[in-house]
Design a protein that fits this description.
The complex is a heterodimer.
Chain A (H helix, E strand, L loop, with lengths): L3 E3 L4 E4 L4 E7 L6 E7 L6 E6 L4 E3 L2 E6 L4 E6 L8 E8 L8 E3 L3 E6 L1
Parallel strand pairs in A: 2-11
Antiparallel strand pairs in A: 1-3, 3-8, 4-5, 4-9, 6-7, 7-8, 9-10, 9-11
Chain B lengths: L4 E3 L2 E4 L5 E6 L6 E7 L5 E8 L2 E4 L8 E4 L6 E5 L8 E8 L9 E2 L3 E5 L1
Parallel strand pairs in B: 2-11
Antiparallel strand pairs in B: 1-3, 3-8, 4-5, 4-9, 5-6, 7-8, 9-10, 9-11
The chains are: A mainly beta, B mainly beta.
């Protein structure tokens, strides 16, 4: 079983749609959680940290369920510029080591 | 540009040569991380360094790969006697502190191609 699992997609959605991505992680000792986006295999860019209480940044909402070891990202009112690969990222998988473990990413294509 | 700086952007080497990849962290950041992304795969952790110290090298291949982060100058990822399988994008990231809740910020990467 992969340490961080994501549906690879692609998700093809029309502009203005709401789209949700899910991610599961295997190690209950994981400490911190993030969503990054990566465009065409360029550098990953931090989208947002994910907290147990849930957090929102504009059109983006992230949720963490520690009991289910499940992370989600909701994008409302999709824009063409949201087209990218969204990476679910977990830190602290190996008992405190400060290393990020990446999912393989979910590809989003927003279309006119 | 105050971001993480990596050079070169692209590096071509023949099998058996050495590759040196450089990374300067963001200003004020003393923690550096190297990740590798093989074609069609996700990013994989390689090594975590703080000035003059290797903190975690559990993701480094046992042979041919080494990393350093000297007191002065950039962090260097060195690959000796490169093979075709080393072709990948190598990303460096930095953070201000070493706690797990600190986001890591990435450089543009070095695309290494082995002929």
């Amino acid at each position: 079983r992969k340490e961080v699992e994501q549906d690879p997609g692609p998700f093809n959605v029309p502009e203005g749609a709401t789209v949700a991505f899910n991610c599961t992680y295997s190690n209950s000792a994981s400490q911190s959680f993030f969503w990054y986006r990566q465009d065409c295999r360029k550098e990953p860019k931090l989208l947002m940290s994910v907290y147990s209480s849930g957090n929102e940044d504009g059109r983006f909402t992230a949720q963490l369920n520690r009991a289910s070891q499940y992370i989600s990202l909701l994008i409302r009112d999709s824009k063409l510029s949201d087209s990218a690969t969204y990476l679910c990222v977990v830190n602290g998988l190996t008992g405190g080591g400060n290393k990020l473990t990446f999912g393989t990413g979910t590809q989003l294509k927003v279309e006119l | 540009n105050a971001g993480v700086m990596q050079n070169p952007r692209h590096l071509v080497r023949r099998r058996g040569q050495e590759a040196r990849l450089r990374c300067s962290p963001m200003k004020g950041h003393s923690h550096v991380y190297w990740y590798r992304q093989l074609p069609e795969e996700g990013l994989k952790f390689m090594v975590y360094l703080q000035k003059e110290n290797i903190i975690d090298e559990s993701g480094m291949p046992k042979e041919r790969f080494s990393a350093e982060f000297p007191k002065e100058g950039p962090s260097i990822l060195r690959i000796q006697q490169v093979v075709r399988g080393d072709s990948a994008a190598y990303f460096c990231a930095s953070s201000r502190q070493g706690s797990s809740n600190q986001p890591q910020h990435f450089g543009d990467g070095t695309r290494l191609s082995i002929l």
